[in-house]
Design a protein that fits this description.
Layout: H1 2-9, H2 15-22, H3 26-38, E1 43-46, E2 52-55, H4 68-76, H5 86-96, H6 101-111, H7 134-143, E3 145-152, E4 158-171, E5 174-181, E6 184-189, E7 193-202, H8 211-226, E8 229-235, H9 240-247, E9 251-256, E10 262-268, H10 271-279, E11 285-289, H11 291-308
Antiparallel strand pairs: 1-2, 3-4, 3-7, 4-5, 5-6, 8-10, 8-11, 9-10
């Protein structure tokens, strides 16, 4: 791509110029120029003194249609602290040399203007390593070949099966393979993969398959399984922001009630834990159901009064 852009923005280039601009050897530059011709790009060489490589008739590609904003956005991912692979960073550093001159300075500035730190405050600074078989599985997805997959489940049982790799998803520090199998659509944590063996057979990829949409469905199903309990409540309007901070995606906000409060639904994996999370919000939130959560809240309130309420002499229990 970089060589093609160079050819489009200069009337003629030599192998030596390509090598110098893209930080590769002249031998590699000549090989890649030949490869463009083999791939059907109308490039030809001019022999003799003052010769070089040109595009026939000023042929162009849509890559030259990059706007300044698009070029900046592209190079935002290549910064020194970004999470892309070293190969992506190297490729983009080479590609920047082939951008039109007015875009080049801004693209280089974009590459150093953004730092993405995925670590939460107070969390370990240890950098998670990519799973062992990530590259092999990504290659299988790109080439569209089935693989014989060894896999260890959460109970430690190892199995082997043939899968149709459809895509790879990074969820926080974890990587997942989305595949079709004989048992239907399945998702595998890549750090649990024990072996990968390409079969050479082509992947069957449904015509309507969309990786992003498929992952949204998978993630929604996982969330439903992780948080099977629902609490119904009404909340003071000014406290909705507090609930969003505390419950994130587990919170669903509904409409307003007759008294101006807001109906909400909060999901969790245990009624007692949900009651504990809501106990500190009693000033703003009234739980309307289910009854089990209300009972837990009442028990928590009794326990709080017993421990921290005033005794018969008017002193706090905790002060005795």
């Amino acid at each position: 791509m970089a060589i093609l852009l160079l050819l489009q923005h200069r009337e003629q280039v030599t192998a030596a110029e390509v090598a110098r601009e893209l930080e590769i050897s002249e031998r590699t530059a000549r090989r890649d120029l030949d490869a463009l011709g083999m791939a059907g790009v109308p490039v030809y060489s001019v022999q003799g003194r003052g010769g070089g490589w040109r595009l026939v008739g000023g042929a162009r590609t849509d890559l030259s249609g990059l706007t300044a904003g698009e070029a900046r956005a592209l190079f935002l991912v290549a910064g020194p602290a970004s999470s892309v692979t070293p190969a992506v960073k190297a490729a983009l550093r080479k590609l920047v040399h082939a951008l039109p001159e007015p875009f080049r300075a801004q693209a280089e500035a974009a590459a150093s203007s953004l730092v993405m730190d995925p670590q939460r405050w107070g969390s370990s600074r240890a950098e998670p390593r990519p799973p062992r078989f990530l590259d092999e599985l990504q290659d299988a997805v790109i080439r569209g070949v089935q693989v014989r997959l060894g896999y260890v489940d959460r109970e430690g049982t190892e199995t082997e099966r043939t899968v149709h790799p459809l895509g790879i998803v990074a969820k926080g520090p974890s990587w997942y393979l989305v595949s079709d199998t004989e048992a239907g659509r399945r998702t595998f944590r890549i750090d649990r993969v024990s072996s990968v063996g390409p079969t050479g057979d082509p992947v069957y990829r449904p015509d309507d398959f969309d990786l992003a949409e498929s992952w949204r469905e998978i993630a929604d199903e996982v969330e439903r399984r992780r948080t099977p309990f629902e609490v119904r409540a009404v909340c003071a309007p000014h406290a909705i922001g507090v609930l969003r901070m505390g419950f994130g995606g587990r919170l669903e906000v509904g409409g307003a009630t007759n008294d101006g409060r807001i109906e909400v639904v909060i999901r969790g994996n245990d009624e007692y834990i949900l009651a504990g999370e809501l106990a500190g919000l009693v000033e703003w939130v009234e739980v309307t159901g289910p009854p089990g959560v209300r009972d837990h809240l009442a028990s928590i309130g009794d326990a709080l009064v017993e421990r921290y309420g005033p005794d018969r002499h008017g002193r706090r229990t905790a002060e005795r």
